[in-house]
Design brief:
Elements (H helix, E strand, L loop, with lengths): L2 E4 L9 H14 L5 E4 L15 H14 L4 E5 L9 H7 L2 E3 L3 E5 L2 E6 L9 H10 L2 H8 L3 H20 L3 H4 L3 H11 L3 E4 L6 E5 L2 E5 L8 E6 L2 E6 L1
Parallel strand pairs: 1-2, 2-3, 3-4, 6-7, 7-9
Antiparallel strand pairs: 1-10, 5-6, 8-9, 10-11
Helix pairs in contact: 1-2
Length: 234
C-alpha cells in the first residue's frame, strides 16, 4: 500500500483556490498512491446528498474522475460534513468509514479518525457533536427543504465561529489524557487524525500520532510507504 491521508479541506463556493488546489492534488495523486483517505471536513458545509447545486456537481465530477480506474478512496465524516451519506459515496465511487477506523498498513496497526472526539475539554462542542450526530436530529434536519437547511447550517456555522473565537488554544485542542487513554487502550503503531488544524507528529511511546493540517494557503498530506511515514505541505 502507498496510502495518502488528508483532512480539513473545507471546500466551499467561497474558496475557489481550495477547489483548484484539491483538483490539482487529485490529478497528481491518481498515479502515485494506491489509497486515499479523506478524514473529515472535505466540505465546509454539507446539508444533504440531495443538494445538487453546481458547486457540488463540480466536486463530484472531480472525485469520480479520480476514483474511476484510480486509487481506492475512503471518506470519514468531519464536524462540517457529517451529513454526507451513502448516496454521495456511491455516486463518486468512494467508501464511507466509521470513526475511528483501524486497519493494517504494511504491517503497521493504524488508526484513523477525524479527531474531534478527542477534544473533551470543549464540553459545549462535545454536547453539540452528540446532538447533531443523533439519528433523531439528522432525520428532523433532512426533512426540511434545501433553503431551510441552508439557513440553519449558516447560522450554526456563524455560532461555531463566534464560540471558537472566545475559547483558549487549550480548550479547542485535543485533551492529552483522552489521547493517551485511547492510545493505551488500542495500541496502534500510527494514529492519524485532523480537526485541530495543528499539523505535527507527536510521540506517545511506541505510537506516532500524526495530526493533519487544514488547507488554506497550502494543503497538508500524510503518507506511508513501507514502514516509513511522512507529514508534509503540498
Amino acid at each position: 500500500m502507498k496510502p495518502r491521508f488528508i483532512s480539513d479541506i473545507h471546500l466551499s463556493e467561497d474558496t475557489p483556490h481550495l477547489t483548484n488546489a484539491f483538483k490539482v492534488f487529485l490529478n497528481k495523486s491518481k498515479e502515485t498512491c494506491t489509497h486515499l483517505f479523506i478524514l473529515g471536513d472535505l466540505f465546509e458545509i454539507w446539508i444533504g446528498d440531495d443538494d445538487d447545486n453546481s458547486f457540488n456537481q463540480d466536486i463530484k465530477k472531480a472525485l469520480l474522475d479520480f476514483t474511476t480506474d484510480g486509487p481506492k478512496t475512503f471518506l470519514m465524516h468531519g464536524n462540517r460534513d457529517f451529513l454526507i451519506g451513502e448516496a454521495f459515496a456511491n455516486e463518486v465511487g468512494i467508501s464511507m468509514l466509521p470513526d475511528p477506523y483501524t486497519l493494517d498498513i504494511n504491517g503497521l496497526k493504524t488508526i484513523l479518525s477525524h479527531g474531534d472526539f478527542l477534544c473533551t475539554d470543549d464540553v459545549d462542542y462535545i454536547e453539540f457533536r452528540d446532538e447533531v450526530r443523533s439519528e433523531e436530529w439528522q432525520k428532523n434536519f433532512l426533512s426540511k427543504n434545501i433553503n431551510e437547511r441552508n439557513k440553519i447550517a449558516k447560522s450554526l456555522r456563524a455560532d461555531s465561529t463566534d464560540a471558537t473565537s472566545e475559547k483558549s488554544f487549550e480548550i479547542t485542542d485535543v485533551n492529552l489524557g483522552t489521547v493517551n487513554n485511547f492510545i493505551q487502550e488500542n495500541k496502534p503503531h500510527i494514529f492519524i487524525h485532523g480537526h485541530t488544524h495543528r499539523p505535527k507528529i507527536h510521540e506517545h511511546g511506541s505510537c506516532k500520532r500524526i495530526v493533519l493540517g487544514d488547507w488554506d494557503k497550502s494543503g497538508w498530506m500524510a503518507s506511508i510507504e513501507g514502514d516509513s511515514y511522512n507529514l508534509q505541505k503540498i
